[in-house]
Design a protein that fits this description.
Elements: H1 8-24, H2 29-39, H3 45-58, H4 64-73, H5 79-92, H6 98-108, H7 113-122
Helix pairs in contact: 1-2, 1-3, 2-3, 3-5, 4-5, 5-7, 6-7
C-alpha cells in the first residue's frame, strides 16, 4: 500500500524497508524484487533510483526480465537514475549481455561526467 502513496519519500522508504526485510529473510527476496520492478516506472526519480538499489541488492545476476528493466533506466531522463542503472548492470547482467554492453557503452558517451564515470566503473 505504501508503494502507491502520493508522497515519493514514503514510496522510497517502503522500498528500502522491503529490501531490509528481504535481506533478513531469504524467502522474501522474490517478493521484494517483484514489488520493486514496477517502481522502475514511477514518475519520481528518487523512487526509480531506490527500486534500482533494491534490485541490485536482491535480484541476483542473470534475471533477464530484471536486467531489461534496469537497462531501460540507463536511458532515463534523471541523471542519478541513469548513473545507478549503469552501475547496477555490473551486478545484474550476465557477462557478455549484449544489451547491457550497449547501454554501458552509450553511457560512456553521455554529456554528464557522473554517468560517464559510472559506465567506466561498470566496465
Amino acid at each position: 500500500a505504501r508503494l502507491a502513496d502520493e508522497h515519493p519519500l514514503v514510496r522510497v522508504a517502503a522500498l528500502k524497508a522491503f529490501a531490509h526485510l528481504a535481506l533478513e529473510a531469504q524467502e522474501e527476496r522474490e517478493t521484494a524484487v517483484a514489488l520493486a520492478c514496477p517502481c522502475l516506472e514511477d514518475e519520481d526519480g528518487q523512487v526509480r533510483k531506490a527500486a534500482i538499489e533494491v534490485l541490485e541488492q536482491l535480484a541476483g545476476r542473470g534475471k533477464e526480465s530484471v536486467t531489461g528493466l534496469v537497462i531501460a533506466r540507463a536511458y532515463d531522463d534523471d541523471l542519478s537514475v541513469r548513473e545507478w542503472a549503469v552501475c547496477a548492470l555490473a551486478e545484474l547482467a550476465e557477462m557478455g549481455d549484449a544489451r547491457a554492453i550497449e547501454a554501458v557503452c552509450a553511457a560512456l558517451g553521455a554529456d554528464e561526467d557522473d554517468v560517464r564515470f559510472a559506465a567506466f566503473r561498470t566496465l
